[in-house]
Specification:
Blueprint: H1 2-20, H2 36-39, E1 42-44, H3 47-52, E2 53-55, E3 60-63, E4 69-77, E5 83-92, E6 98-102, E7 106-110, E8 115-121, E9 129-136
């Protein structure tokens, strides 16, 4: 009985120690893949929106008198049908990190081949950069 217990103990110990031999830390894979929100100012979050929406003209930015960042983008419906999308803006500091200032998702209804302006204003003066995100409304 003692022999069986010892054998089971050694087997369990061997299994536990073999799981720890992983070789150390690993670097992240595909760090630059699917990171559009770090590089672009307008990102389309899914295929349907990518097919249907485009930005018409440059995105305008301005600083309000109290130092807050104001962003205005013209979004255009590329299709001959009415579509409904949701839009929000994430404000970032000069290094590209979120300031914690993210607007709520707002619904935008675009009729056939129409264009609408969306306006966002940061809540504080920390915002220097931004990312506008557009997704399909469900």
């Amino acid at each position: 009985m003692k022999k069986l217990f010892s054998l089971a103990l050694f087997a369990a110990l061997g299994i536990a120690l073999s799981g720890c031999a992983t070789g150390g830390a690993y670097s992240p894979k595909n760090a630059s893949k699917n990171d559009l929100e770090n590089r672009e100012i307008l990102v389309l979050m899914d295929r349907a929106v990518q097919r249907s929406i485009t930005s018409a003209g440059p995105i305008q930015t301005a600083v309000t008198p109290d130092g807050r960042l104001e962003v205005v983008a013209n979004l255009r419906n590329r299709e001959g049908r009415r579509i409904q999308v949701q839009v929000n803006c994430v404000f970032k500091d000069a290094q590209g990190f979120s300031t914690g200032d993210e607007t709520p998702w707002q619904t935008l209804i675009l009729t056939e081949n129409s264009q609408e302006s969306v306006r966002f204003i940061s809540m504080n003066d920390k915002a220097k950069r931004y990312t506008i995100r557009v997704r399909e409304a469900r």
